[in-house]
Structures are given as C-alpha cells and as structure tokens.
Write a structure and sequence with these properties.
The strands form two sheets. The protein has a four-stranded antiparallel sheet with strand order 2-5-1-6, covered by helices on one side. A two-stranded antiparallel ribbon has the order 3-4. A hairpin with a 5-residue loop joins strand 3 and strand 4. It is an alpha+beta fold.
C-alpha cells in the first residue's frame, strides 16, 4: 500500500527551523536509509517560495505570488511517497524520520488507489 509521509513543522515552534530541530545531515542520513530500503516511490523537499491560485469574492481566479496569504501556522517542508505492507510499517518509517523530532511531526496519509 502506498502512503504519503508529510514532514510538517510549526512556525512558532523554537525547535523547528534554522535555530532548532533536526539538522540537514540527519535528514540526508534518513533519506539514504529509507531509499536503501527500496520503499520510496518518490520524495520531495519544498522551497520557501509559493504561488497561490484562489477565487476572489467576484468569482474570478486570482494568482498571488507574493501574498496576501492566509496566516499559516503549520507547513509542509517535504515528504515521501512510500510503498509498504501496511500502516504499521509506514508508522515505523515516520518514527525514524528526523521530521518527527521536536519542532515537527510526520503526517501519514494513505494514497487512494486511482
């Protein structure tokens, strides 16, 4: 079964980001481990920039590249799509991830079989 492991952070948590949380080296080591286990279908890391497309009050689609954005407290820093036997195995990988250390958490979502 395929699962998304979403590496989440919280903007107000001092244990998350440049001043705290897991180091890039810890993430690189985890990436090597999970890739070597041959369970990764794909993975990604997100940059800070974003573009939002939404519908305004008049019904028009609007593109916002520099805001205003809704104030977001949680963010996705990256993630993996993994193919494992069951949710327990997905949980085991999430527990190993530096993303589940102080300052963040890993959200596990099953992928719909389309």
């Amino acid at each position: 079964m395929k699962y998304a492991l979403l590496l989440m952070g919280h903007v107000d948590d001092p244990a998350c980001g440049e001043e705290g949380g897991a180091t890039p080296e810890e993430f690189f080591a985890f990436d090597q481990e999970i890739t070597a286990a041959r369970v990764v279908v794909s993975s990604f890391a997100l940059e800070d920039e974003r573009v939002v497309v939404h519908t305004d009050d008049s019904g028009e689609r609007v593109v916002a590249a520099s805001g205003p954005f809704a104030e977001v407290q949680e963010f996705v820093g990256g993630g993996y799509i993994i193919d494992v036997a069951d949710v327990d195995e997905a949980i085991a990988w999430a527990r190993r991830s530096p993303g589940s250390a102080a300052g963040g958490h890993v959200e596990i979502r099953p992928l719909a079989p389309y």
